[in-house]
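Quick one, T. Sequence first:
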Amino acid sequence: MKGILKNTLSLTVITVIMGVLLGVVHHVTAEPIARQEQLKKEEAYENVYPSAERYEVLELAAGEREAMDEGLSGVRLDEAVLALDGAGETLGYVLTVTTPEGYGGDIQIAMGISMDRTLQGIDFLSIEETAGLGMRADTQEFKSQFQGKQVESFVVTKNGASQEGEIDALSGATITSSAVTGAVNAGLTAFDLLTGEGGTAE
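Structure tokens:
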């Protein structure tokens, strides 16, 4: 009986110590990780809206958040940011959206949209697709297909893009191509909701 109690006590002490150590490690690493994530996000903002001088995060009201959830067909709006010029005038928006439709799981992108609804560019904050296939989405060749376009929505094609809103699918990675394109289209819808009647004004 004493042996059992001793072993139980030892295990309890070890568990408590490990818990404390894990808590310390988490506390020590949480801030640097958060800092790196913020730097990555800011770099993405600059990539998708390079003409902006600064960025201002929008706080969405509960009703606006609900409207977003209902209107984006499963894609999540993570953050909406105003892209401002040096005088503080609004140039457009930088939106961060996440789609669960990627082949390897969630794909998170940042996208810049000017007030005339021209897509300034897209960049990836998180993507874990198949190397050599879906990961080719994170190349300038693929991402540049969206840049400078002013369309109602984008569509994926396997036959070579011949129209303004068509996006060439990545060979062997149609799921990834469709997921990214769907996320971009959801971002355009979010932009419409934010700038339209009942949305957040510029």
